[in-house]
Amino acid sequence: MKHTDIMRVVLVGAGNVGTHLAYHLCSSQVKLVQIWSRTEVSARTLGERVEVPFTTTLDDLSADADLYIVAVPDHALPEIMSLLSLQRDRFIVHTSAGSSMDILRIASDRYGVFYPLQTFSRTHPVRFSNVPLCLEANTAGDLALLKDFARHFSRRIYIMDTEKRKTVHLAAVFANNFPNYLYQVSEDILHGEKLPFDLVKPLIRETAMKVQRQSPRQVQTGPASREDHAIISQHIERLGRDTAYARLYSFLTQCILDSLANKNKPHDHA
Amino acid sequence: MKHTDIMRVVLVGAGNVGTHLAYHLCSSQVKLVQIWSRTEVSARTLGERVEVPFTTTLDDLSADADLYIVAVPDHALPEIMSLLSLQRDRFIVHTSAGSSMDILRIASDRYGVFYPLQTFSRTHPVRFSNVPLCLEANTAGDLALLKDFARHFSRRIYIMDTEKRKTVHLAAVFANNFPNYLYQVSEDILHGEKLPFDLVKPLIRETAMKVQRQSPRQVQTGPASREDHAIISQHIERLGRDTAYARLYSFLTQCILDSLANKNKPHDHA
């Protein structure tokens, strides 16, 4: 394919990631030619929404697309790869952080990874322009092609191998899933006293904005970082000693205290 | 004082909170007439920055201000209260989440609390317009006066007693200090593999923005919420079994798993 041609893409998977990729591709210079999902309702919902043909049969996949994006859960990847019956010169990528690139080798000689580092909920729109894209491919030529494709999404392109990508995914759990769980705890505590979660929303936003410019270590505040044991004890009492949230509070407070004692290297409080 | 008069304020304390209050007051309709700090350098730095007289002697405090804001750490409050020698009809508030309102009773018959629910780092500017202000006063008249004052900062005004305020502070630790610590862990993990913290910054921002509109419970993603034990095990291996970060990962993952098993009520995994 020449770089001036319009790239033709098939999307395999209509979950959270697939859905947001499809939405974005429909407003891009790339042509999404087909969507596959295991379930009829997912395939139809997304296909009709973005006005792209859809199928639930892998054997019906368009044979001549330039790129096949497989956006399915990690656990489903091996099976879907084994069922794909494309020509071995078709370029296939998956979107997963947790799976190695080599898992695609069974289906094609040309394979790679297109991992958008963002949290995707179906109900929440995603703007890709600032999303880091972690790319990998098994040949330099296809890596270049994948970069061209990625530029339709974002300028923040990172080339990295499977091991680095897995580290990034691990770091993302600490940056996203765990903080979000703590937001949930905060909401529970407030609702338990009939107070609105709205109270802490500006704080959540500000905390996230601060670390865009400064290291989290430099902007840490609160009772643990002040080593204010009187307030720490009050808080644990308030949660109720021996409750799950009190244990969580104690655990995280001890982590912060240890990190103060042991600055600039990963700490251990065995 | 009539409501049309310009309110005259003395600020006792020039730490993180005091500094940001002073910056804001200087661009408001309220007149900041004096700043006190225990240390000469803090008093001078802030006083000169905002062009307001400063002192390090509590006995030199202006006697006729309409409002005295005591913005000092919780542990310093009792001593400073015992040293204040104002007329007992002067209105005094503190800015602390963790201290009761009654701690001010020793210094005046008119007292209250002005607690801005935000994280204050001296190096990071604060826009107050969206900051929730938690107010309390010992008379209805002074509560009205404090509300008038608070409107110079923000429209988000909440009247709450000391017990509720302490609950809010506890919730704020889960919303701010603990997530910020997890950002720090994320940064450590990335830097350990020579990867930039920049990679997860959009994710941090997006996670915080999502919960502005949706409950954190509804937008949780990641291996724990998918109960993806293969990825969870991979992550723990990657952190190194028996390291502090692996224990932290396991602890938080178990919390999320428990919360899935036990939706909509605080969980316990004793």
Polypeptide structure, described:
Two copies of one chain form a homodimer. The longest helix of chain A is centred in the middle third of the chain and has 31 residues. Chain A has nine helices and eight strands. Chain A has an eight-stranded mixed β-sheet with strand order 3-2-1-4-5-6-7-8. In chain A, helix 4 links the parallel strand 7 and strand 8. Chain A is an alpha/beta fold and 270 residues long. At the A-B interface, helix 5, helix 6, helix 7, helix 8 and helix 9 of A face helix 5, helix 6, helix 7, helix 8 and helix 9 of B.
Label this structure with key terms.
homodimer; 270 residues; eight-stranded mixed β-sheet; 42% helix; elongated
By DSSP (H or I, 4+ residues per run), the number of helices of chain A equals: 9
List the quaternary state of the chains. Answer: homodimer
Radius of gyration of chain A: 23 Å
Mean pLDDT across all amino acids of chain A: 93
Count of individual beta strands of chain A: 8
Strand order of the largest sheet of chain A: 3-2-1-4-5-6-7-8
Q: What proportion of the residues of chain A is helical, as a percent range?
A: 40-55%
Helix-strand layout with pairing:
Two copies of one chain form a homodimer.
Chain A: E1 8-12, H1 16-26, E2 31-36, H2 40-50, E3 54-55, E4 67-70, H3 77-83, E5 91-94, E6 110-116, E7 133-137, H4 140-150, E8 157-159, H5 162-192, H6 201-210, H7 216-219, H8 229-239, H9 244-261
Parallel strand pairs in A: 1-2, 1-4, 2-3, 4-5, 5-6, 7-8
Antiparallel strand pairs in A: 6-7
Helix pairs in contact in A: 8-9
